[in-house]
Design brief:
Length: 327
């Protein structure tokens, strides 16, 4: 039988500090009711202190290694999906490898905004399927608080910090990552981006003064694209794999907005009790949302459960992954 990449362990890390809607009411012109009704978010976790995304990623990997009773030396490859790397270079994956002592691994970062984790999962699975590697760690982690303007009510209510990680190992029983459909359309970049700090517009006094190092989002436009495309791609992967709603045990959607999640579930014909939602506790952790959901629900998953992972984000980037759970 074909070699597939099974998810054999899942870890996550959420920092201790919490930013509630009530806290935000004191910072910007907003209300708990508005945030809850328009997004479903109640609170988010914030990584305080001189720490970067590497800290979130390293802790998520450490929790995963503990579960499988593995040493960091066992890891062959670390892929870190993030939009908030510690630095422009080197890659956060390199920093993380050093932090946890993964001396035998190489690694790289992958940037696909909110779809980072499903892009990285699909990429990591290839290294297992080819037989090249036996243990690939795929991380999704973001310290969104590092690029949020806490005076901008359009964005500061949405995002939080956190990360999750999965271990991929070869499987010969048809379990693991079975299919994916990924898309990108750079024409969407004007609606969700960071204006400065890259090679096109390096940091300057002016860019700092103009607040161009923060997330810029035209929420309504992104919402429209997200609602349509996330549902379309999730339905498409079901059809491609002859899966009806009853065949799917869990929908694991990117947590950007409860209304987007609900409408994706409805379009797929999946009842709410099979749709994983934890946005109320963490907000949108960008690359972190899907692996954090997997971590929180892992004890409910049964061997052979069909999971559909789906996301939409900046780029635009979007896609869906079909995973058969188990190891
Ligand atoms: O994960 C990456 C992809 N990102 C997404 O998927 C996010 C997609 N977008 C969204 O989730 C939603 O568009 C938001 C949550 C960002 C905004 O919700 P919305 O229902 O689209 O609100 P809106 O931007 O259309 O604003 C409606 C009204 C406006 O007032 P007027 O013009 O009607 O008077 C805003 O000024 O709500 C106002 N508003 C707020 N009011 C209270 C905007 N933000 C806030 C706020 N508190 N925080």
């Amino acid at each position: 039988m074909k070699t597939t990449a099974a998810i054999t362990a899942v870890g996550a890390y959420l920092p201790d500090d919490i930013l509630t809607n009530q806290d935000l009411e004191k910072m910007v012109d907003t209300t708990n009711d508005w945030i809850l009704e328009r997004t479903g978010i109640q609170e988010r976790h914030i990584l305080k202190g001189p720490y970067g995304t590497s800290t979130l990623a390293a802790r998520a990997i450490q929790s995963l290694l503990q579960q499988r009773n593995l040493s960091p030396l066992d890891i062959d490859l670390i892929i870190v999906a993030t939009t908030t790397p510690d630095m422009m270079f080197p890659a956060t994956a390199n920093v993380v490898g050093d932090m946890i002592g993964a001396k035998n691994a190489w690694g790289f970062d992958l940037q696909a905004a909110c779809s980072g984790f499903i892009y990285a999962l699909s990429t990591g699975a290839q290294f297992i399927e080819t037989g090249r590697y036996k243990k690939v760690v795929v991380v999704g982690a973001d310290k969104m608080s590092s690029i949020i303007d806490y005076e901008d009510r359009n964005t500061c209510i949405i995002f939080g910090d956190g990360g999750g990680a999965v271990l991929l190992e070869p499987n010969y029983e048809g379990l693991g990552v079975l299919d994916f459909i990924l898309h990108s359309d750079g024409a969407g970049r004007e609606f969700l981006h960071m204006k400065a700090g890259g090679s096109m517009k390096p940091a300057s006094l002016e860019t700092v003064r103009n607040k161009e190092h923060y997330v810029y989002q035209e929420g309504k436009t992104v919402f429209k694209f997200a609602v349509t495309n996330m549902a379309d791609v999730a339905v498409k992967i079901m059809e491609k794999n002859n899966l009806g709603p009853d065949d799917i045990a869990w929908l694991v959607p990117h947590q950007a907005n409860k209304r987007i999640i609900d409408s994706t579930g409805q379009r797929m014909g999946i009842p709410p009790e099979k749709v994983i939602v934890n946005i109320q506790k963490y907000g949108n952790t960008t690359s972190g949302t899907i692996p954090i959901c997997l971590f929180e629900w892992k004890d409910k998953f049964k061997k052979g459960d069909n999971l559909i992972l789906a996301s939409f984000g900046g780029g635009f980037t979007w896609g869906a992954v079909y995973v058969k759970w188990g190891c």
